[in-house]
């Protein structure tokens, strides 16, 4: 099974600091999915055109079943991940962003500033996650059952939870 993780970060892509969010996504999946996942790893700055291009490539050329983005979902003018995602998806699934904001709000009231979305492009499912590894660990458990169901509906083998 092939998944992609795309980290949007000006500073991490410039080498100012290490990308910790992308590896956190891989680690969570390795600990909770029985299947061996082949990962396509992308680290790019918060540039809408580059994000759109990366999303199209991992969906259309790499044929990734799941594409998980991290970063770029906040209120900053440089946070353009939701706009780039909307430009490439065919169908949006608003429940993913809604549940992340609702469940995170009790712990972090500013989580309502997140604009994360999810949707499909062809047979690929794309979901935006926050750029914080701790938040990734809080959000992925909420989403994983629905992600697995969606992958099944899109015609991919159904990943088994550990």
Structural account:
Helix 2 packs across helix 6, helix 3 (about 50-60) packs across helix 4 and helix 5 runs antiparallel to helix 6. The chain has one domain: Molybdenum Cofactor Biosythetic Enzyme, Chain A (3-Layer(aba) Sandwich), CATH 3.40.980.10. The protein has six helices and six strands. The longest helix has 21 residues, at about 135-155. A six-stranded mixed beta sheet has the order 2-1-3-6-5-4, with helices on both faces. The chain is α/β, with parallel strands linked by helices.
Question: Which structural class matches the secondary elements?
Answer: alpha/beta
Helix content: 40-55%
Query: What fraction of the residues are assigned to beta strands by DSSP?
Result: 15-25%
How many strand elements?
6
Helix tally?
6
The backbone outline, from C-alpha atoms, is globular
CATH architecture: 3-Layer(aba) Sandwich
CATH homologous superfamily descriptor: MoaB/Mog-like domain
Biggest β-sheet description: 6 strands, mixed
Spatial separation of the terminal alpha carbons: 16 Å
Using the CA coordinates, give the radius of gyration.
14 Å
Poorly predicted parts: none
Our count of domains comes out at: 1
- Spatial sequence of strands, sheet with the most strands: 2-1-3-6-5-4
Would you tell me which CATH topology applies?
A: Molybdenum Cofactor Biosythetic Enzyme, Chain A
N-to-C order of helices and strands: EHHEHEHEHEEH
Average pLDDT value?
Answer: 97
* Name of the CATH first level: Alpha Beta
